[in-house]
Specification:
There is one protein chain. It contains eleven helices and 20 strands. By secondary structure, it is of the alpha+beta class. The termini are far apart. Zinc ion binds at residues 114, 229, 385. Residues 114, 229, 385 line the site of zinc ion.
Length: 465
């Protein structure tokens, strides 16, 4: 399969102008590569799709922002309009970046927007069959495998291009708010949690914005976040959903600048309205409206006196080990041939055998990364589909002089990462999706949240004051 490649936005860097009021303290580079395949491909995110994609609403991209504090502290943040970051991608990017660019693992952050309208990223036929239609054909699997190879190379290329484009810059941070994310865990009369809008559930409406200004005073890049699933759309056409539109609006308003979206802790958040919720309004318009709302928040943050972000930059990355509570025999009985594909039933059978032997599943390593921008900003990036409780708690506990930005969907998107509350409550994000769709051997133990929090604090402390 052939993929079209759009060369990254090549930056024309003017020499440093002494007339600028504030001298650049950083070096920054940015690059963009298109990921949209030329032909049809299975899209990721919804189990009810029965065929590969049939067109493109909005191109999807890999983008990289390289930041260097001039004193050895650096980070490359890669944002992807994709469902997630598979471990194979992280491993490949880490290895190649070390070899070609001397990047250490903690100097690389990969984040996925979790758009449900972009190509499937797993090369595994089993995953394709399990999570999508049984109608997947060998040719479809070949296309997914080809995309995986293309994606890995492209991510390494975009990292290299961002480093090459490095030039003096200054950084500023601010935040605003956007309100279209809503909690999607609704308590039903029978005591269970369904996947429906819950207007009183917890949300994080912050829109953190890091802007990169070149030595010529022009906006070169804007990195912004939001905690919400990119699930306005559900059709068969490729799109970055609301985050894709927000990036498009920002780049159109600032020609030459690159907008990068970093997904927050939106594991239990949906953009509302979505799908067919508004009679007579095409869903594509809803995605565009949410993108406009998010872009408006970014414009506001940019206009409302952003604060300078000085160095030094320090980063740390480590795994938090999440233990599983194996499924009980009774829970395993609920797997049946009408609802589940043969691979899932085989998996349930293997879990039943392990349970009988008293074997406990191995813990899951969840990457946690902390990036400290001097005294001004702390960025925490966690693996998995992180629910909003984490960002609220991390902002509360790290609150101090520095602003706090919490990203989910980073470095390895293995499935849902529930908080203690969500795991106890159960439902889709607490247990259902991980065991029924995403191949986990059980639910995470109730200690998962504290294990993650301990790692966040440990890494933050390791970076000094
Ligand atoms: Zn999700």
């Amino acid at each position: 399969m052939k993929f079209s490649v759009l060369l990254g936005s090549v930056l024309l860097i003017s020499s440093f102008c002494s007339a600028q009021s504030r001298a650049p303290e950083w070096k920054a580079g940015v690059a963009t590569r298109k990921l949209t395949p030329d032909g049809p491909i299975w899209l990721a995110g919804y189990a009810n799709r029965t065929a590969p994609s049939d067109g493109v609403d909005l191109d999807v991209f890999a983008k990289a922002l390289a930041l260097d504090d001039g004193h050895g502290g650096r980070i490359v943040i890669v944002t992807l309009d994709l469902i997630g970051v598979p471990p194979e991608l992280r491993a490949f990017a880490e290895r190649e970046s070390a070899q070609h660019f001397g990047l250490k693992p903690h100097e690389l952050l990969l984040n996925a927007s979790h758009t449900h309208s972009a190509p499937q990223v797993s090369p595994d036929r089993m995953v394709l069959e399990r999570t999508f239609s049984r109608a997947a054909k060998t040719a479809d699997v070949d296309a997914v495998n080809a995309f995986q190879t293309f994606l890995q190379r492209t991510v390494v290329d975009v990292i290299g291009e961002s480093l090459q484009a490095s030039a003096p810059a200054r950084l500023e941070f601010n935040q605003a708010r956007a309100g279209f994310a809503m909690n999607r865990r609704r308590l039903e009369p029978n005591g269970t949690y369904s996947n429906n809008p819950n207007p009183t559930g917890p949300v994080d409406h912050d829109v953190p914005v890091l802007r990169v200004i070149g030595a010529d005073g022009k906006l070169r890049a804007v990195l912004f976040g939001y905690a919400c699933h990119n699930t306005t759309l559900g059709g068969s056409r490729i799109s970055g959903d609301y985050a894709g539109h927000a990036q498009r609006f920002l780049e159109a308003a600032h020609p030459g600048a690159t907008a990068l979206f970093m997904m927050g802790c939106g594991g239990d958040q949906n953009p509302y309205p979505r799908g067919a919720m508004v009679p007579g309004q095409p869903v594509e318009q809803l995605a565009e409206q949410h993108g406009r709302a998010l872009a408006n928040a970014v414009f506001t943050a940019l206009a409302a006196r952003p604060r300078p972000v000085p160095g030094p930059l320090r980063a740390a990355l480590a795994d938090a080990l999440l233990d599983y509570e194996p499924l009980s025999a009774k829970e395993l009985e609920t797997f049946n041939a009408t609802e589940h594909t043969p691979p899932i039933l085989q998996r349930a059978q293997a879990l039943r055998a392990a349970l009988q032997k008293g074997e406990r599943p191995a813990a899951l390593p969840c990457p946690v990364q902390v990036v400290q921008f001097g005294p001004a900003l702390t960025l925490v990036a966690i693996g998995g589909e992180v629910v909003v409780d984490y960002s609220l708690r991390i902002k509360r506990e790290l609150k101090g002089e520095a602003d706090v930005w919490v990203a989910g969907y980073s470095n390895h998107v293995f499935g849902y990462l529930g908080s203690r509350r969500v795991i106890e409550e159960g439902g889709y994000e607490g247990i259902g999706a991980n065991i029924r769709i995403l191949n986990h051997p059980g639910r995470f133990t109730f200690a998962a949240e504290d294990v993650i929090m301990a790692k966040v604090h440990e890494l933050r402390r390791s970076l000094g004051p």
